[in-house]
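Lab channel / #folding
Pinned by the channel admin:
"Please post every new chain as: sequence first, then the structure tokens as a reply. Keep commentary short and put observations after the output so the thread stays searchable."

First post following the new format, from NK:
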Amino acid sequence: MTSEKQPEDRRKDDLERLQELLLDDDRSRLNELDQRISGFENRVTDVAEVLPTAFKRIAGDPALEAEIEKPILRAIRTSIKRDVHVLAELLFPIMGPAIRRAVADALKSLVQRINVAMENSFSIKSLRWRLESAKSGVPYAQVVLSHTMRYAVQEAFLIARDTGLVLAHVHRDENLVLDEDAVAAMLTAIQSFIQDSLGMGADEPLRSAELGDRTLWVINGPEAILACVISGSPPRVVRDELMALLESIHARYGERFGGNNENLLQDTGLRALVQQSLREELDEPHQPDSSSKAKYYWIAAIALLLVLVGWKSWQEYQQRQFESKLVVLFEEQPGYVISSSNREAGELVINGLRDPGTPLPGTILAESGLTGADVRFRLKPFWSLEPGLVLQRLQTSLQLADANTLDLQDGVLRVNGVLDDAQTEMLNRLAVSHPIIDSVELSETRLATGDAIQLGQERLEAPASIELSAGDAIQLARERLEAPASIELSATDGRIAVAGLSSIEWYLEKSPAPWNIGGWEITFEPLLANLQNQLDEEASDLQRITFLFTQGDRLTPESAANLDPFSRRLKSFIQSAQSLGGRPVVTLLGESDGTGTAEQNLRVMRARVKLLRDTLIEAGITPTRLKTEYPPWRSGEENRDQRRVSLRIDEEESP
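Reply from TO:
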């Protein structure tokens, strides 16, 4: 028996040696794995290493998330049943802030809605909304919210797709709640009608429907349907958000939709998820940051109204002050009698009387700085007895010289200066005919030289051959000629020479007639020579004026500004020269710079001269008084000063 056992032990040893030879490296690793699996501490370490990665995978997979949620919920329920205080201590640091935040959000939403209602409580819009509420029977608060909300999901139904059973129903307002069974039946009926009548397949379900002033959105999922009743006009992104919510519901409860759905009816977690579909968005103008805008609008409107009323009152006050000032101005003006004033068609109309010798109303307004006023005058003429106006009329009617002075005080008219016989006779008659002149005092007057000489000759019975002295002749000649102070008179060899300075008009008026005063002949040759010298100086000044051009036939801005004054001045010179017997001819000289060709420059010079000639003719200068001339052109460098038109004034030769 011993001999039989030895071969068996030998075979085992051989087998072990063979295993060692074949599995030397792997055998050591297998031993290590056996020790690691059989050791409790080693298994704990291995699970701790892979547990975080496993939880990350669970968080990313909705199906696994639902599976891990079940044991955790059971553990929490068991812990609560065993000891409620433990969970209360754990939740205490969390529940306090959470409750405060929830209350704050609820108050914030309440305040926001109250602000929106208050903003629209005192406006035209609010009155319109109140009328709408009264007609429809809908509470005013709901009407306000319906207008101030951009959109709001009023109700949401989660309906099982196969059975039509309403799994969850949430709503915002009790007054707007629909019957959940009726909604589910309606959706099923409408879906069946669409598929039967329009031939649409099951993969083309109903997406939306109109329910009066509200919209029904149907968000379709594989196991359940989310039906939302919406007020307003939600954007497209809301449908995407509701679809994401339905996908989250399927991820968590998808497996339970296929079996008995009765257990889902009381599931608070499912109801909380569906509650998230009750979304809303207010119009931007009614956000909390724009609260009290309606109040500010009312304040601004009232302030604007007060400003307008004040401005209008101030305008009326200013208008009355202006009219009063205007009436007082003309009431105090000598020669005006104001009877009434009133406004007609937006204009101030002043009625009264006006002396013809007084300044015109427009002149008085201009002197007082009241130009531009809307004033119309209805004034009838009359003769004023104001002393100043009486003296003014006497000065004009008697043709008294400026050297004569008149003074009227206490009914006595005092006259100073030189008078002729006719003036003296008229003054003497005033004491009898004038209403405010009782007497005329002429003690400070003297007869004019001619009348005095004639009166002396008559009283002395002197023959006509008696002549005046040089001084008397000069004085008499100045009076007879009505010579201005710039005229110089000198007497020699029986002739009185007129020299000095005067206008050409005065010379042309006095010089043609022969003058003989008391044996003295008057000659105007010295004055004519002076006038000719003035014309020669004027011609020299005109010839120094040149008109510069650009490269073409366009005047430079400075020359263009001087063209009209030059035209008037040249016209006056030609007329003055012609009135004195002259025949002036103005030659326009066209010039150009040294660039270009001779033909080009000649064309440009002609265009420039033509422009100046046409302008002078339009100003009234006779074309026969104008000539043109083009000096020879020479090539050279560019010179802007040569782009010009100058002139030369000559005396035309007698034919």
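NK: Residues 545-651 form a domain with the 60s Ribosomal Protein L30; Chain: A; fold (CATH 3.30.1330.60).
TO: also worth noting, The first strand starts at residue 149 and ends at 160.
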